[in-house]
Amino acid sequence: MHIKRPQWLRVNTSWGENYRLLKSLLADSSLHTVCQEANCPNINHCFENKTATFLILGNICTRGCRFCDVKRGTPQEVDKDEPKRVAFAVKELGLAYAVITSVTRDDLSDGGASLFAQTIQEIRNLIPDCRVEVLIPDLLGSFESLKIVLEAKPDVLNHNLETVERLYPQVRRGADYQRSLNLLHAAKNYDQNLITKSGIMVGLGEIWEEIVNFMEDLRNVNCDLLTIGQYLSPSREHLPVLKYYQPDEFAELKSIGEGMGFSHVESGPLVRSSYQAHKQMESLCRK
């Protein structure tokens, strides 16, 4: 059963000059963004501000998470020139902070880790002062694959748990809650100075205590940054929204997270993993 989205959660869509310029640059460079592929509600705001989350390793995912609007199926071959094109786009946009993510590629022996590393390196070669955040899949729990990414020294390593442990079988096919926690733990153990990040969508049927337990689990593996946003079902073929959280509930979750020791908590109905990522980093650096 789909419940009606509240009026206050309507997204304002306006398409300005920067939005059109960015779309043109992405098309000309044969690049994908998760903003477009996943139908992010913030796309007009982010594109207008010349920010985007680049999606590498193609635009077809090998998994079938029931909340996600990214295409699933058999991916194409890895495009070895993609990292250079991403770096060029970052330079053209004049970005000081770049976010790189990917579809999940369980068909690759390293889960795509080497292309993440190459993309980080290409950006650093072209724009040495640009900070890079990577939002990685679980790499099937392989530490060797994770190490390939870590050795490229991203400024932030993000891996979203997405939902509470109980809901994993319904929400995240092919994923494992403890495996994802272990990945974040391993990353922090490998480099204590690395900033780690994760996020959750609420409204999928979790209860309040489960959200708090989820946050505690992340703090137990020394996760630094947390994003909390409202799940919005992309279509009637996807999982339905079972609850719309109120702004004051997001504010309370932010307060709880800060009390637990997260360095920064971004919590709100339209918050997404990479939304205002540069500002999350800036707030951390000011502390």
Topology:
Elements: H1 17-28, E1 32-33, H2 34-37, H3 43-48, E2 53-56, E3 60-61, E4 71-72, H4 82-93, E5 97-102, H5 113-126, E6 131-135, H6 143-150, E7 156-158, H7 168-171, H8 177-190, E8 195-202, H9 208-220, E9 225-230, H10 247-260, E10 264-267, H11 277-286
Helix pairs in contact: 4-5, 5-6, 6-8, 9-10
Task: Characterise the protein shown here.
It is a single chain. The model is unreliable at 34-38 (pLDDT under 50). This protein has helices at residues 17-28, 34-37, 43-48, 82-93, 113-126, 143-150, 168-171, 177-190, 208-220, 247-260, 277-286, and strands at residues 32-33, 53-56, 60-61, 71-72, 97-102, 131-135, 156-158, 195-202, 225-230, 264-267. Helix 5 runs parallel beside helix 6 (143-150). An eight-stranded mixed β-sheet has the order 1-2-5-6-7-8-9-10, sandwiched between helices. The protein has a two-stranded parallel sheet with strand order 3-4. With 287 residues, it is an alpha/beta fold. It has one domain (7-286): Aldolase class I (TIM Barrel, Alpha-Beta Barrel), CATH 3.20.20.
